[in-house]
Design goal:
Blueprint (H helix, E strand, L loop, with lengths): L5 H12 L7 H7 L9 E6 L9 H15 L12 E6 L15 H13 L4 E4 L7 H7 L2 H7 L3 E2 L7 E5 L7 E5 H4 L3 E5 L1 E5 L3 E3 L1 H4 L15 H12 L3 E10 L12 E10 L2 H11 L8 H8 L13 E5 L1
Parallel strand pairs: 1-12, 2-3, 2-7, 3-4, 7-10, 8-10
Antiparallel strand pairs: 1-11, 5-6, 8-9, 10-11
């Protein structure tokens, strides 16, 4: 069975505590995601022989559309009136070609697909390391998102609120209220090298929803990342591997560290997507401690091939 959203989880917990459990239309709709016949993983690739001459802006758009279509389309995840938060990596004041941030066309395409599926509003935002206005603008994400009708949100430090995580390591932590309260959070990391965790992928991208002393997590990432992932209850994750940062992550800065891969993968199993990302970067997923720890927690499977992924090849 699919996990409820964080908002449903918080609402249900409160109602149980008061001796009352209600079932609403949104909860019923979300339970439909448990369809055993629905694809759990879709991988869209640009034909390798055509990569050298591909228009990567066009490719990123078409790959994202193909990956979501492989899962059954955005209406599987979004209903009319939903408020969606798209969480890319916009942590660094870097141009798109440096692959430190999520590809802007991947983000804008997801925004458009959500609105086309009936979303009331699509918000896009991150808690960056460099100044937010520089990151949002120079990443290319702000302009592309606003052009298709999405709303960029600059996270307000006053709107982080301490919430009960209930993890194995994190009992509670300040999280951004608007993200937690969204009907759907789409986690959209860029696949890249990271000096501390070896790779930055989907679970690592959730650090952009938290406040407080984020640096303290660096001492125990294999506990903290599964904790926050378990709390966020991911329903849709999209990994951008149109360009990947092979070295000097997470912020990069040298074009020679970037390689064009022409891949976008989407799915409902965050561990499977991180395992796929590890293989794309030439790593054994079992060697990435955060991924192995998440599987041990029951958050997903590293054996992404067992999900019988839908594969689309474009050119």
């Amino acid at each position: 069975m699919s996990c409820p959203s964080r908002r449903d989880f918080i609402r249900t917990s409160a109602l149980i505590g008061g001796g009352l459990l209600l079932t609403d239309a949104a909860a019923l709709r979300r339970s439909a995601l448990a369809d055993p016949m629905a694809a759990q993983l879709a991988i869209a690739r640009w034909e390798e022989s055509a990569l050298a001459t591909a228009d990567l802006e066009v490719a990123a758009t078409r790959l994202t559309e193909a990956a979501i279509d492989g899962l059954g389309g955005m209406t599987r995840f979004v209903s009319k009136g939903d408020v969606v938060w798209i969480k890319p990596n916009i942590g660094w004041n870097r141009r798109p070609e440096l692959a430190a941030n999520t590809n802007p066309n991947v983000v804008s395409t997801l925004t458009r697909l959500c609105l086309d599926a009936g979303a009331k509003e699509v918000k896009v935002g991150d808690h960056p390391c460099h100044p937010a206005r520089q990151c949002y603008r120079n990443s290319g994400i702000e302009g592309r998102v606003e052009a298709v009708g999405g709303r960029m949100v600059y996270l307000d430090s006053k709107r982080f609120r301490d919430m009960k995580i209930g993890g194995e390591f994190l009992e509670s932590w300040p999280l951004y209220v608007e993200i937690v309260e969204a009907d759907l959070v789409i986690n959209v990391p860029v696949l890249k090298h990271h000096g501390l965790t070896r790779l930055s992928m989907a679970m690592k991208n959730y650090m952009g929803v938290i406040g407080g002393n984020r640096g303290s997590w660096h001492q125990n990432m294999e506990a903290c990342l599964p904790d926050i992932t378990g709390f966020m209850k991911p329903r849709l994750t999209v990994i951008d591997a149109v360009r990947v940062l092979l070295r000097h992550g997470p912020q990069g800065g040298d074009p020679d560290d970037v390689e064009v891969r022409g891949i976008v993968a989407a799915g409902t199993d965050v561990v499977a997507l991180d395992a796929l990302g590890a293989e794309l970067m030439g790593r054994d997923p079992r060697s990435i401690r955060t991924v192995a720890a998440a599987e041990a927690r029951g958050l997903g499977t590293m054996d992404f091939r067992s999900l019988d992924p839908v594969e689309r090849v474009l050119s």
